[in-house]
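TOKENISED FOLD:
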Amino acid sequence: MSGPSWRFCPQCGSPLEWGEVAGAERQACYTPSCGFVRWDNPLPVVAAVIECVDRDGAILLARNHAWPEKMFALVTGFLEKGESPEDAVAREVKEEVNLDAVSVRLLGAYPFFRKNEILIGYHVQARGEIVLNEELAEYRLLRPEQLRPWPQATGQAVRDWMLSQGMALPEIVEGNLFAHADL
């Protein structure tokens, strides 16, 4: 049971019940004419390790308005219908920080169980004038050696990017979902 329970079937309106379906405990509609199953599959999310090629290769981290001060992470967004993950990450970088992707390279896929998401991480080389959209409060530009990967979610993409660059990994800050507070 990963997400919150639903009370009613979205197809026919009958009450949903928990039961074993395809080898796992899932909510299902047992009305004979319906048969809906709530699979609760993870949502695909893209994440960008943004390297600002026109700012000496600085890495951009951003803070969402909803987050506490000094908590920064990668730019992320949902994959939209009909869009490739590569197009989605370039679109998110443009929408959230107004940078144009010059190159997009896959880092890996990472489970984010807490939010029932699968993160598809990319190294995005980008350029342009940084302009934050309404979701973001502020950003930081860090030299690559200032990065400190965090153990969950997008921090794993940061770790893999650092390794791909031949960088030594600093100590990971356990329990932190975001970059260090010493930005």
